[in-house]
Write a structure and sequence with these properties.
It is a single chain. Strands 4-3-7-6-5 form a 5-stranded antiparallel β-sheet, sandwiched between helices. It has a two-stranded antiparallel ribbon with strand order 1-2. Helices cover 41% and strands 26% of the residues. It is built from 6 helices and 7 strands. By secondary structure, it is of the alpha+beta class.
């Protein structure tokens, strides 16, 4: 309790009989418990604890204000850390999904153009073209040419394969706007077209 009673009964309301017994066994003469954050599953609460063990103590108003302000700072840091860990976990999960989609993909920031992510298949398929910048140039030229379609085709002379490139705006894991590019091998499709066969997927012939 404080000298003027502003925190009176805080301990008895914050803990049960078992906790009160523990406080007595530890010879804690004065304690202030401030809730910081609850577990996501609701199974428990983290508290900040300030104790006096050597002598009796009555909390002053200034002490209560200072400790409460300090607890809010700790709470803010904890929430920031949890959000950061959650963001990192979401990013790892998304990367795992994109690394197993079966097509080459990469994402860029809509604001800066910075590459946010590229998957394994992109490097396996276009590693050399990615490193020397030729792939980005082909895609940039294709996107400018087919800006209203959001889809175009490119030819990789190194492996003699055709790829359908599609792109669309998406929201990245941190909430920022991004552009998702995906490249699907359509070489068999082009061969069927040349042989006069009808490709089972409904698609207008290019060119």
């Amino acid at each position: 309790t404080t000298d003027d009673g502003i925190c009176g009964g805080y301990v008895s309301r914050g803990v049960g009989k078992a906790e009160n017994k523990l406080i007595a066994d530890c010879r804690i003469n004065a304690i202030m418990l401030l809730p910081l954050i609850r577990r996501q599953d609701g199974s428990g609460m983290m508290y900040a604890s300030v104790e006096y063990r050597c002598e009796d103590h009555s909390w002053t108003r200034d002490e209560v204000k200072f400790i409460s302000d300090a607890a809010r700072v700790i709470q803010s840091l904890l929430i920031s850390r949890i959000n950061k860990n959650s963001l990192a976990g979401s990013l790892r999960a998304l990367e795992e999904i994109l690394n197993n989609v079966g097509v080459a993909v990469y994402l860029t920031s809509n604001a800066t153009g910075k590459v946010l992510f590229y998957n394994r298949m992109l490097m396996e398929t276009f590693g050399e073209e990615w490193e020397n910048g030729r792939l980005q140039l082909m895609i940039s030229n294709g996107a400018n040419f087919a800006s209203s379609e959001c889809s175009f085709e490119i030819f990789n002379a190194r492996n003699s394969n055709w790829y359908d490139v599609s792109y669309k705006p998406v929201e990245w894991v941190d909430g920022s706007e991004a552009i998702l590019y995906s490249m699907t091998n359509i070489t068999d499709h082009k061969l069927y077209q040349r042989k006069g066969y009808c490709w089972p997927i409904c698609r207008e012939p290019s060119g």
